[in-house]
Amino acid sequence: MIKLFSLKQQKKEELASGTSSAGKRKATAAQLRLTKDLNELQLPKTCITEFPDPNDLLNFKLIITPDEGYYRGGKFTFSFKVGLGYPHEAPKVKCETMVYHPNIDLEGNVCLNILREDWKPVLTINSVIYGIQYLFLEPNPEDPLNKEAAEILSTNKRQFEQNVNRSMKGGYVGSVYFERCLK
Amino acid sequence: MLQGLDYCLKMEVDNVVSTVREPLNWSGRWNHIQKVLERSGPFAHPDFEPSPDILGFLLNNCKLLVIGAGGLGCELLKNLTLTGFRHIDVIDMDTIDLSNLNRQFLFRQNDIGKAKATVASDFINNRVKGAEVVPHFCKIQDYDASFYKQFHIVVCGLDSIVARRWINGMLISLLEYDEDGNLDQTSVIPMVDGGTEGFKGNARIILPGLSACMECTLDLYPPQVNFPMCTIAHTPRQPEHCVEYVKVFGWEKEKPFGDAPIDGDNPEHIKWICGSACERAEQFGIQGVTYRLTQGVIKRIIPAVASTNAVIAAACSTEVFKLASSCGAPMNNYMVFNDADGVYTYTFEAEKSETCVACSQKPKTIHFKPTSQLRELIEFLCQDSMLQMKSPGITTTVNGNSKTLFMKSIPSIERATRPNLSKSLADLGLSSGQELIVADVTTPNSLIFILKLSDQCSAET
Amino acid sequence: MANKQNKYDRQLRLWGDHGQWCLENSKICLVNVTATGTETLKNLILPGIGSFVIVDKSRVNGEDAGSNFFLDPNAIGESKAKVATNLLLELNPEVKGEYIEEDVANILETNPHFFLSFTVVIACNLYGETLQKLAALFWCNNIPFVTCKSFGFIGYLRLVIPEHCIIESHPDNSHEDLRLDCPFEELCAYADTIDLDAMDKKDHSHTPYVIILYKYLMEWKKAHSGAMPKTWKEKKEFKKLVMSGIRKNADGVPEDEENFDEAVKQVNSALVPSCVPEKVQKIFNDPKCLQLTEESTDFWMMVGGLRQFVSNSENGLLPLRGSLPDMFSDSDKYIKLQNIYQGKAKQDMEAVTGHISQVCTKSGCGNGKISEKDIKRFCRNAHFLRVVRTRSLQSEYESPSKSIMDSLTSDEISDAVWYVLLRAVERFQSTNGRLPGMNNAEWESDVNRLKNCLYDLLKSWDIPGAVEAISDDFLQEMCRCGSSEIHSVASYMGGVTSHEVVKLITAQYIPICNSYIYNGYKSTSVTIDI
């Protein structure tokens, strides 16, 4: 053990008034970690990130343009919000493109386990992006957010494919209108 | 060994009537703690030298910061002022709520709505003569290093992991190292941290740079429970799932109070959510949605009782008393407590992580001229034999705002920051003493560099 | 009322409205105003006990006012009991408080009945004959008695409770009561309607693990002449069998079926045989259960009924708990299953109710006075019933328990050593008429005096040699502290003590048995059955 301060030591006022570092905010652990995550980002070629403000690394977009599967040719934008609790808490992700997808609802909520119940601090931004990309390759009808889409995917794959195509071209699927989102 | 005896204390256990009433130090006031401060003891810290000066230090010089004026904070202020500490600052951004009164004993019914820090300070200063508790009704993030530097010890009674991690990072950033990379121990500000949940609690000591810090042991704090989105949406089984459904989907859709976001303290909001959740529960045959449960889910309420808060705050206070006086060796270094089944404690040494993102690194100082270009700095990082980085990404903070200097891996940022490469460090707004965060594949964590700018220097560490 | 619900919200989530009701109807007595004592009361007044009475004859001095938050330096010379009562009453307008400016020994002499109306009595810094007499009084009258003190960095707490019966012990991690090893009729009937093979993919992956395990256990039992998987190897094989049920896609690759993953994970705990826990069995064999009389309390009546239920039931098991943990499933199947468990629990509870009323009649006790709500709570907690009985203080002082002897003769000195030192301090007090280390001139020479007391104590325990095991360092620390009350140590003990009292009042959670030592030097503690 060490002796931390001697009794002679007065209030640390002289220290406080000395080398002033006022205004210089220190890096938070979340920032240190996020900088590392982003610097090491290795995206599949179907994904790109956009930083509306390159100085703000906490808020950015992910754009996915799948080159295989049902969603080939589409272009889908997700917003990422990384909080100060990162990586103790998962980033908040929403889909900004209206999409006909069993695991994404029409409000943009995304059902991906690592974003909620299975988040762990060892996971990275990279893991989340791969998770989202996987949803487009393998939409999962078992645990749906968009129940109608899931129903059709598990009962009539052809119909599902047609619905996806119709939605991406811009048009109605049932009573819901989808904006065009082809690349 | 017993110099303290010259300074003779008159014990006045029986003789009370003739006591002269001094405003601050009435006769016998500090008798209890003077015994352990002025007598030697085998279990004291090896450096302990019993002396009346120690009490003087506590009373007149030692400055403490208490973060949080809630369940733990109220107890801490009482314990610390009654063990001789007078100069205490307390920060809390919250106001008093009715549900605080079952444990936050410095508050009364008519204090509801007032600032916790202010009411707590006023109460203590009034009750404990000579106490000079200074309230700060704000967030800890509102102050910078110059504020935190002034304290000898920081004591936390927080309910937020984010806030704990923030102050942990702040205290680590205050560490100073000499040219050989040795820690200047006078720059260490110990952090004593307590936390409770129902009948469970923990108390710990963090000596920044020397012992395990918050980030070293982040695993000890489990992430909050989140239900799978699809369970909430389509296969609810528990009352909590129904409440979450209304929170995640129903509120946005129905906008019962216009654009207002959910306010867990607004009974009308909770009532509406509870009603909608009940409807959903009925639809699925789920029992158990009540107002109390709804509020618990929405506010993520953690149960709290007076007794556990008292225990944990007391354990923390004893450690502060020992740290400041050396009259006992500090605990090593983490205690967990649970008194649901009997009373259980377990004290162990949380281990410092060699790869901790926050405390494993000593910030390295690098010297450049203000006219040097950012490109030169990056070349230095890649070419220096100790670093040999491959593709460093660099961020920093200028005028309180974060700034990305360069990052190659992300095309959009690379495009936006490429022009920075040929700018001078001065033109980029960097000043001497600037902290640079550098991430690279060659190290497991981001590194912190302190940039020193002067006309004489060429690049060197 | 709504106001009270909000004020106590954070604790109601722990001990419920019925726990709160017990608190609000309790009457607590504190003997002697010390910081430990007032901190304990503070933590009882805040959550809302009914009322308290403080007994103390002494007057506030400078020393007390310096270390006790509920004594005022401006009131030096005034009654401690009065000053503390007034300041404590500010904490909660719902709580009533009184004080009696009289010495406890005196009340014991002149009006011992005074003490018999309390729910719990707490005494601080009480020594010698008065302590023994007071403890004996409560022991005879079955009133829980708590004695505690802070001594420098050491805290001491002792519960003296002839009998304390707990229905809701709130175990932290208990096995679920699923009965997969001995499924009841209704569970079988439902599970048998389900044909996993005939299900579509979605249904298959949304069937609760309880059903999956039931199905494969049936299959296993069929192949193993009715036996369950018991050994580690068998369980491993059984897990394999369960996994073989996972659907495969066209390429033969197993699908992702979370419910099956869950089933495999739950195999070990689900295969723990259902039984009456040992602690409950012991309660069944308690003389209090075997000989019910008209004097028997509700608790023992219910235990009597429960015992009869168990011995009359085919499988000799307790009533089904009726709770179903959350598990991966669609809503429909989960809720159906939940209703089956709850329905069976209700059936069992009704049977238990019948048995209770039978034993009540048999023992001459008023019939039907136990409410349905109480019986329901009792049945739901049948696996977790506890009866705690400590030794009397008298018997502790007549002969020390084996556990304390063992701790003195073991290689590693535990915090139990502080108990022995506190006993030596008590001896010191009775020989010298003061506590060791009280004044600066003598504190160092007190070390030897205290050592003599320690030696005498250990000799009376027939282990004089143990004095060698206790280093002089401990003695010196005791004299150094000289019975001072360091506020934070007192506050720690006030926290621990108050919660033990809450346990006694609410009959929820499990109190210590019987002594607790806190070591503020190291921030460690130990519970010892002395």
Automatic annotation (TrEMBL), chain A:
Assigned keywords, A-Z: ATP-binding, Nucleotide-binding, Transferase, Ubl conjugation pathway
Determine if Transferase is one of this entry's keywords: yes
User: Can the keyword Mitochondrion be found in this entry's annotation?
Assistant: no
Q: Which residues form the active site?
A: 111 (glycyl thioester intermediate)
Give the superkingdom in one word.
Answer: Eukaryota
User: Which Pfam families does this one have?
Assistant: UQ_con (PF00179)
- Which part of the chain is the UBC core domain? 29-173
Q: Which PANTHER family match?
A: UBIQUITIN-CONJUGATING ENZYME E2 (PTHR24067)
Family note: Belongs to the ubiquitin-conjugating enzyme family.
Q: What is this protein called?
A: UBC core domain-containing protein
UniProtKB/TrEMBL annotation, chain B:
Enzyme Commission designation: 6.2.1.64
Alphabetized UniProt keyword annotations: ATP-binding, Ligase, Nucleotide-binding, Ubl conjugation pathway
Q: Where is the active site?
A: 230
Per UniProt, the enzyme's principal EC class comes to ligase
Q: Which residues form the E2 binding domain?
A: 366-454
Q: Does the keyword Ligase apply?
A: yes
Biochemical pathway: Protein modification; protein neddylation
- Top-level taxon in the UniProt lineage: Eukaryota
Q: Which family does it belong to?
A: Belongs to the ubiquitin-activating E1 family. UBA3 subfamily.
Q: What does this protein do?
A: Catalytic subunit of the dimeric E1 enzyme, which activates NEDD8.
Designated name of the protein = NEDD8-activating enzyme E1 catalytic subunit
Q: Which organism is it from?
A: Clavelina lepadiformis
From TrEMBL, chain C:
In terms of SUPFAM superfamilies, this protein maps to:
Activating enzymes of the ubiquitin-like proteins
Q: Where is the THIF-type NAD/FAD binding fold domain?
A: 8-510
Keyword annotations for this protein? Ubl conjugation pathway
Describe which pathway this protein belongs to, using the record's wording. Protein modification; protein neddylation
- Give the similarity note: Belongs to the ubiquitin-activating E1 family. ULA1 subfamily.
* PANTHER family in the cross-refs: NEDD8-ACTIVATING ENZYME E1 REGULATORY SUBUNIT, UBIQUITIN-ACTIVATING ENZYME E1
Name of the protein this chain belongs to: NEDD8-activating enzyme E1 regulatory subunit
